[in-house]
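Lab channel / #folding
Pinned by the channel admin:
"Please post every new chain as: sequence first, then the structure tokens as a reply. Keep commentary short and put observations after the output so the thread stays searchable."

First post following the new format, from NK:
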Amino acid sequence: MAHIVQQPLVMECTGWDSYRLLDSGAGRKWEAFGPHAFIRPEPQAMWQPRAMGEDGPEWPAAGEFIPGSDEDGGGRWHFTENLPEEGWPLAWDDVRFTAKPTPFRHLQFFPDMAPVWEWMRGQLDGMTEAETLNLFGYTGLGSLALSQHGKVTHVDASKKSVAQARENAALSGMEDRPIRWLIDDAAKFAAREVRRERRYDGIILDPPKFGRGPDGEVWRLEEHLPGLIADCARLLDGNSRFLFLTVYAVRMSSLAIAGLLQEALAHLPGQIEHGDLAVREEVLRQAQDERESRLLPTAIFARWSNPR
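Reply from TO:
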């Protein structure tokens, strides 16, 4: 029976050539996505920025996302530079992708997922014929990272996101990798896979708080996540390696989703860990004072692993 490790973990993104968290505070964050810097809302940055001038943070940026009055969404970008309309290329390890501001304040990828991609590859170390499932796969970086270990099934309800994922595969020179690109409702697809008696070596889920499927299906995280996890558990067996779940923008503890995994995966060996995803700021040098960089939490996670 899979057991919970009670002590929470932090999976830390330290940044790399294509992404840096430069500073944060007062409900915002200042980030570099390759050659362009941006300012985005971040409610968990409750401290004060370190790059402060007389009139506030000194954060030169190509654009800032101004949130709407509704805490659940809305807002718009305000740009101070002309950006490439088609976006610009970035990379993580051997994965190449395009960054571009979207109406949802993101830039077509989630940089805090970098340690998750690395962890999943570690769970499949030595495997070349694994079969993995990426639900809510977005623009495909996780799928491309997993594809070096075998077949990947990538599922997302957005036709636009799947098209971008395929473009990222081509940009990475991975268009011939064994990846199935599916435009489908994640919960319905998982239920069909259970009926087909399919199994996977690993599953990654990055569900939104609220969403709609390609045929208008409504997804509400608190209401529908338990059923989806139960179906995913039926797609794993004693030889499977991992399940990774991330949850953003909800008032929920990582212990809660770890408990959900423990209930669903009671028939399997291994362990369940939980905690925060976080991004470490760059250290800012001001005169002779070099202060320790801060960790900015971005999401909670729970993960099941079954070392072989």
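NK: The helical segments are 114-123, 141-146, 159-171, 186-195, 221-234, 254-264.
TO: also worth noting, The domain at 3-16+87-305 is CATH 3.40.50.150 (Rossmann fold).
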